[in-house]
Amino acid sequence: MLATTRARERRFHDGFACPRCRAHDVQRWGRERTGMQRYRCRACRRTFNDLTGTAMAGTRMPAVWESYAETMRQSLSCRRAAAILGVDHKTVWRWRHRVMAQLAPEGRPLAGIVEADETFFRRNFKRSRPVGRRRRKRGTESGNPHGLGRDKVPVLIARSRAGETRAVVLPGTATREALAQALRDVVDPAGTLCTDGSGALKAAAREVRVRKHVALVASRGERKRGIYHVQSVNSYQGRLKQWLAPFRGVATKYLHRYLNWHILHEQITRLAPRDARRVLVGNTAELAAVRCCPNCGTALAA
């Protein structure tokens, strides 16, 4: 089984060690009902297996995960993936969120020429509609159709010329303060920032004190100024929304997870299918930095 083998390689690449106390005094401790080897740490006296602490822990069907990785590579909906795998669609949903909870792009800021722009998604309370909120008829728009309004969620997209992408869901509205905080997290101030003519982005760029800021005002016909443009980030936004469309609405509380999944999806589309599955399985085999809910992957308090 590729998934279990990959998890074992990552778990014990520096020798046998307990995933909880990191002690190397480990002994074999029988087998699971599935045949998977179980271990026991002599230091903390707790038992574990190859998948403990990973997104695959406790799934009871580790043999299906390579096929599941293929459905994620193809970005299939939960119901379509469930029909292929022969499991319930709720099981696929839980697996998906276990994986997405551990997906995150590299933390270093984007350097060089970076394009940034804000985009908006409709606020979605799927499966958790607040008390007192009126139902909205499907197919109707609310708020400003150009992106503004209380029912819109702002997202800052930053993309470097090297193809690296960062996406940050902004709290509340796309104000100068919110944009400045997001830019500090994802953009190296020593580089060059390209944006459109948004006044909030201009003010945020001044607050962050980027070395050079190029603002292109489309109303003046400024589509490009030398080597500076925002076509890459605008193209990425279009691909992102087209990719999200088959999911028929993403709950706002999980939007950041889907944004991270799409960033990884763009990277693995250049790989062969088998290599792409290895990347996905490798991500699910990584140990979580924090304790997470075994169902949805939400971080738990210590």
User: pLDDT below 50 for ≥5 consecutive residues: which ranges?
Assistant: 285-302
Supply the CATH architecture of the largest domain: 2-Layer Sandwich
What is the N-to-C succession of helices and strands? HEEEHHHEEEHEHEHHH
**What is the CATH topology assignment of the largest domain?**
Nucleotidyltransferase, domain 5
Rounded to the nearest angstrom, the distance between the terminal CA atoms is: 32 Å
Q: Residue-averaged pLDDT, rounded?
A: 81
CATH class category of the largest domain:
Alpha Beta
Classify the beta-strand content into a percent band. 15-25%
Helix content: 25-40%
Question: Domains counted in the coordinates: how many?
Answer: 2
Strand neighbour order, sheet with most strands: 6-5-4-7-8
The coarse silhouette is globular
Could you characterize what this model shows?
With 302 residues, the protein is an alpha/beta fold. It folds into two domains: 2-101 and 271-285, no CATH class; 113-127 and 142-251, Nucleotidyltransferase, domain 5. 34% of the residues lie in helices and 16% in strands. The chain has nine helices and eight strands. The protein has helices spanning 2-11, 65-73, 78-85, 89-102, 176-186, 199-208, 231-244, 255-268, 273-285, and strands at residues 26-31, 37-41, 47-49, 113-122, 152-160, 165-169, 192-196, 212-216. It has a five-stranded mixed sheet with strand order 6-5-4-7-8, sandwiched between helices. Strands 1-2-3 form a three-stranded antiparallel sheet, with no helix packed on it.
Characteristics of this structure?
302 residues, alpha/beta, Nucleotidyltransferase, domain 5, 2 domains, three-stranded antiparallel beta sheet, 9 helices, 8 strands, 34% helix, globular
